[in-house]
Structure formats: C-alpha cells, structure tokens
Amino acid sequence: MRVYLHLVAITLASLALTGCGSSSTPEPTNTPTSAPILVPTNTPAPTTPDPTAELTTAPALLVQPETAQQPEPATQDIEEPSAPPVPVTTAAQSANLRGGPGTDYDVVGGVTAGQALEVTHTNTAGDWYRLASGAWIFGTLVSNAPGDPPVTTDYPALPAPIQPVAEPQAPEQPAEPMAAPPLPPPAGANVRCETFGADELCVWVSNASPPISTDVVVYARYSVNGVSATGQAMRAIWRYKTTSPECSGTTNGEGVAQCSRNIGRPSAGHQVNIAVTIAGRTVVTHFTP
What we know:
By secondary structure, the protein is mostly beta strands. The chain contains one helix and 16 strands. Strands 8, 9, 10, 11 and 14 form a five-stranded antiparallel beta sheet that branches. It has a four-stranded antiparallel beta sheet with strand order 13-12-15-16, with no helix packed on it. Strand 12 (233-239) and strand 13 form a beta hairpin.
C-alpha cells in the first residue's frame, strides 16, 4: 500500500511542474488548432521503484496443491432376500367333491389333477378339507395342503341311510339229484341192470335153465341215487308161447322184491322172457327150460 501512495505522489508532482513551465513560455502566433485536452486519469504512470523505499513483503498466497480426486467406489445394488414362494395347493389327482366331510355325502362336483385349490377349513378329524366353494375333498387327494387350517363343524348332517328294498327272490329250484354210482350187481342168473336218470333197476332169475315142472324165482332190486328204495311194488309178466301169467312183490329194506312160479311143462329150448316193472321202470330177464 505504501508503494502505491508513493507512486501517486510522484505523478501529481510531475503534473504540477508541467503547468508551471507552460505559463512562462510565450504562446506561438500560429493559428491555433484544436488539440486534444488531456484529462488526467487515475491510472498511475509506471515509475522506477525507489531503492530507498521501504520494502514490504506482500503476504504470500498459499497455493494448495490440487489433490487427485479419488474415483468414487462403484455402488453395488444389494438385493434384499425375498421370501420363499408359497407352494400352491393343488389336487393330487382327479377326485370327486362332496357336500360334506365323508363319502356318505352327495357328490357336488369334481376336480382334475393339478387343479389349484383354495382350502379354507378342515373337519374335526383333520382328514377332509373344505374349499372356498363350500365343497369338501378328502385330505390325501390334496397336494401342498396348508399346515393348520381352521377347524369347522359348519356342514350339513349326514342324510338318513336309505334302507335297501329287498327284491323278491325267485323260489329256489330243488337241486337235481346227482346220480350216485350204482350198487354192485346182485348174484344170480341172467342179471340185467338199467339206469333211468338217478334210478337203477336190476332183475334176475334163480335158475337160467330150470328142469320141467320146477319153481323159478324172479328178483328185482330198485335204488334211487344209490340208495335202496323200500316199499316199491313189483310186477312181473312171464311170457310163454301162448300164455303170459304174472306175479308180484314189494321191495324190502334192501330194495329187493321177489315172486315165483312153477314153470310147468313149457316147450323144451323155448326162452321164457320175464318183464319186471317197478315205479314205471321195466327191465327184462329170462330163462330157458
């Protein structure tokens, strides 16, 4: 600041001396021309610094060194962990929907495998689920069922069981008797046995070649299903050349009946046939005198 004031004083002194000199010099006679008028300005003229002038030290300006800007660390978006997805409740397989928790309730609809379900409640036993529609589905037919749905008893009571109407049964037909194996053939002469379904009739004579004027006995055995039939009437017709006498009898406990006749004097070598009938069954035996 003091240097600046010193320069200003020197400039003012120079201007004063210039004015004084111009007043003692005569003015020229030439036609005056308009010259520019100098107007002093506040701009100081350059001067040679006075060596005696007090040297002042201007305060030094501290220049801060530019610091290299450090690159800002890149910010990385940190994703907040999201909650695990909630599994969707679906039908494990195609199934019926019922009006209540039990198979005794009517079928009110159905679902297909993989169909999404909205479970709202469970029954007291926890084995059936009620859906938002109000229908019920069996628990094992549901995949990813909610862990603890509320329990409800708000469902209709079971309908009264329908008593089945007994259909009239056709009268049982008696089983046809099975044919039993026949009894062993009796011992005798000219034994003839025939079967009639479950019935068997065997006939024979006491002598296949009787002498003249002797008695011949004719026998018959009657059985049903292999069991001897008792109390059955027997009729025997003896067929000679010109006559056909008869005899009769009744079966005993062994199913055997018998009757006899004296053959008289038939033609020698003529076969006499005897037709024996029991219960409408007829078998023929014979003898030859």
